[in-house]
């Protein structure tokens, strides 16, 4: 079950000729795939293209009507490998994953695919996770296109352009027998807008039909001597064909006046920010009508030299606007100008920053500086001599705290790391490697657990140097998503084969949670089209790992701590693996909350647990927060002049997971925590018993109050 | 509710006429996406082109998140909108939390020439603020002050509370505030239609919308919403004999110099509840000793601080106190209200207790307790018998009775080992502080204030004690210096910064380097 249901959006995928789609960019891409007669789609989830996978999963009915095969691939390598269907068969295929990490994982398949070349259009949709909000290392997918010689589209970030790029991509791929990558930046994936729709098209050849008529051609196999021929083919035939297609079909666009002393060359994805900067400089209007010529590269690889040179004609200087490093495009265009003996001055990363996101401010500063230096006459007087005064603002940098993402309220992973923190109090600091996924938030305060992450599924592999053991055992953490993505083969067979002395903790929250709660092999849900409910421990046994401890309720901090301690001290040989399982609270609440509300309305008995803190008992030392960090566990200032420090307080977002109480218990913190179960629609005998109890308790309380002083604030 | 308006804004560039740029800064999970959808639907439904973007991904999970919307009246050609807010180029900034308002100012999204800033004044504390052993909460006042300068128009209220009170979530009240601000050229009904069209929790959303709309549309300079009334002074109830005795003590406390009385009265109440009036008498006597060596020239700071910390030291957290607090009727009432348990609901309360051998030994008579404490064998035995996590249903008769009996052991308390320990510690600390009185008044005050370091239970408590000892030791090494009080303050603040005492170790190192 994915985090969001797209059942409603799937209706938009059925829109036909003459209708209009309004919605998110990522959905527009999905619609465009169907309009272009795609034969099979696949991919692996991850921001920002998770929604594409979720929509496809929810649209399986429509897909099967059209004869389109959808595969939720085990990882990005599997997804890229699926494009092999387009090598021999004239079937259009598309897969999606995030860049640049997905491309890293898929690079083996992508390189082989690019070498073989394709017959049917092969499209890789990459959600480029770069800049603000990114959760990965900052690199460019661009390098992969260059090294493997496949083509890279970077369309202008509006829905009609993105939708057009899908069709262009397939055509370009078929015209040049080369896979094409469509890159969409994180904001373009989530940008909203609208475009006119066309009818969905059945594939010319479905994968089922192809299977009835198998084809092969050994000249496409990546083996010598064919692989040498492939390389020559890429340069001698496929690339010129691509350049011709790009030029003839005007995939790149030119805007603004023909005659001008300067021009801007930009990646398609930068277009809107460039226009905004020009608008602010008084050089473009609301519709993007620019007074500076623009050469917009909707295809950023390959570049088309003659097109570029003709844009440069008559200009003194051009500015290349290329986000990310190194400056691949700028280097190629510089070579191009030099070879042509051109006198045009090329500017780019000498003005604009080499690294980091090209934000609005960066664009305004960079383009402003370029124009002031290269063509001051073009700028309005107001911009040349800005005449505004800004009042000085107080410095808030010491006031405003950083707010990195963290575990959600009630997250079942928090108690695992609380237990680890407790164990480290006994053992001293341990060598801990982490993986990719929600559990990586444990690296941040208050836990500060896990020192490195080497990639998805590689957590335990990242501890391999320590497999031989030492005074204390190394610990690796990996999620269930990572386990099935690559972890079983790369991390656990590595541990088993090398007789690792280490400990691995598999955080099993029933989903690929960080990417939006997609099902994985070990998910507990029934999924009609996927095989679920395959226990992780069974897979581990299958590869010869025998020391396995299954914890079925991670909130039991005491047990978690004891199991960890056992794994770190046991004499049993070989890797020790703990499978810590509890359902992702975000997904669980999404499922159970409506059910609970319905049950209460129906008059059925429902217990709603929530935690609380006795503010008189809490001393304000915040030890509980240092072992939890739950968003619902906050602080509250009391209006008691005798108290200095704020006390712990639990707000109503608490889901009653029990972690607070368990931590207070396992770490022997304090007796301030209590759990209150509110019972809706109690049974009759229950109510009677409760009344009886309340009467006796009330009598006891009154009895004691009669013999002592109590103070009550009187209204 | 704060409203602040600058002079009219600078004229907009006519070539860009009509693009309205609106950014939302929220904490992941606050429903910024819902608000964005409403605003977008509102614009599209009223003849505008609109575009929204967000960066979702893991930033959703309790991290700071930005949503961004641009809109312009529909024309023949489509407008080109930006995908992210730029510094100095935002018309409306909605901050769904106070520090996020600060962050929006910091990032330059709020400028006096154009930005309407709508901020919720409530706080969702960041982990870094919460985990400090002392008080790490960032100052909202600083952000308020900055917002007054930075924004063209500043609308601030606790929109979170407003939403909760109306059975809704903050996106609804912020939407109401946006409507009430008049920053968008659409009528109120259009906003409400957008909520209705979304079809989820409509009633609650509309109530929260209306409340926020009213709050935000008050004219500038309107009187602030009534501040929370100052709570009335707690009044005693109980047998008249005790009340008469109390009144005598209370009169005595009231007669203390004004700065002292303000602290001594709550102190006295605390101790009367903790133990009895005789204990309150002891408190006033101790306070009298301090007062005798204090003077008006110093504003009685020493006695005022002593009134606070002696009360806290005397009302130490032992098993009896905890059990007593947990069995009081006012606690049950408070939990009922907090959990919103109505007449038709039942409520069960489970306490999480984990007694250790130390607590059991502390309950024994001082002499015996000390012998047990000194015997590892006995301590181990006690730990085996009692020392485990216990879940106690305090709404059940058995659970309640157990706590009730423990809470009734006040008569026994004065004989216990724990009491003896606390008394000894109290005396040692007071002597130490008063020892500095003659030579350095300010230092004596600072030493009194060091009592703040002792808090928590079990390990946390012992860590607090050891920090307290370290700080006092550190103070002793610099006691002869004229700036000793300043150092004492720094040491104490360092001790409250982190759990392990890294900051304190650093401060002590510094002291050693010159002392």
Automatic annotation (TrEMBL), chain A:
Show the CDD domains listed in the entry.
TPP_IOR_alpha
User: Sorted alphabetically, which InterPro entries does this protein's record hold?
Assistant: HACL1-like, THDP-binding, TPP_enzyme_TPP-bd
Q: Name one GO molecular function term.
A: catalytic activity
- Its protein name is Indolepyruvate ferredoxin oxidoreductase
- Gene Ontology biological-process entries: small molecule metabolic process
Source organism? Paracoccus alkanivorans
Q: Which UniProt keywords apply?
A: Metal-binding, Pyruvate
- Every copy of the Thiamine pyrophosphate enzyme TPP-binding domain together lies at 450-578
Which Pfam families does its entry note?
Answer: TPP_enzyme_C
Automatic annotation (TrEMBL), chain B:
Q: Where is the DUF6537 domain?
A: 267-472
The UniProt record lists the Pyruvate/ketoisovalerate oxidoreductase catalytic domain at 28-213
Q: Is Cytoplasm there in the keyword field?
A: no
Q: Where is the composition biased (Low complexity)?
A: 215-232
Residue ranges, annotated region (Disordered): 215-238
Q: Name one Pfam family in it.
A: POR
Write out the entry's keywords from A to Z.
Oxidoreductase, Pyruvate
Recall the GO molecular function terms of this protein's record. Answer: oxidoreductase activity, acting on the aldehyde or oxo group of donors
| Record's protein name | Indolepyruvate oxidoreductase subunit beta family protein
Species: Paracoccus alkanivorans
